[in-house]
Amino acid sequence: MSLHKEDARSKKVVFVANCLLNANNKVREFARYPGMFSEVIQVLDHFGMGVIQMPCPETLYMGNQRWWNSRNLYDNVGYRRFCRQLAGQMADYMENYKIISYDVIAILTCDGSPTCGSSMSSYCEDWGGRPKEIPRTLINRPGIFIEELKKEITDRQLELPCVYGLAMDDRNRTNKEIISDFSSFISNLIVKREK
Known about the structure:
Blueprint: E1 12-16, H1 18-21, H2 38-46, E2 50-53, H3 57-62, H4 71-74, H5 77-99, E3 103-110, E4 121-123, E5 137-139, H6 144-155, E6 162-166, H7 175-194
Parallel strand pairs: 1-2, 1-3, 3-6
Antiparallel strand pairs: 4-5
């Protein structure tokens, strides 16, 4: 029998892409809000979720004045090794939570990001060399960091949480629409997990 009393913690945790909590790490011209996407936090708080802010590999690797990049430019040995190192730290948290039976509910990402896209990331075959503006497309592949994070979680035989990508790079969607979709997703996920 434990000598410790229970407290108010929910024992539910969500891992969140860095730029959802700090738009200052977005590449220039891609921030949709001044500081944090506070509506995301409001939804998580409504359901009693704790939040782990994942690092921003792009900012740590290339700095805040980096050029726009696409997945294929980041898809190299050095950047993958760097992302895998950061993914290892996130998996350490998850492994520690597993030991004490906390529930890692989800990983929230920014779809379209070459690094943190969940199911879509930017791609441009012709980028490289002299900087120039070239239309980029979205491909149905996760970003490099999310791909490495999934591998790290799987390699450790941890349960892979649901990975949800907010459509942050979709200029045809409003923040209100993005939050509405996210609220429905997290609500349905909580109901499903509590069954």
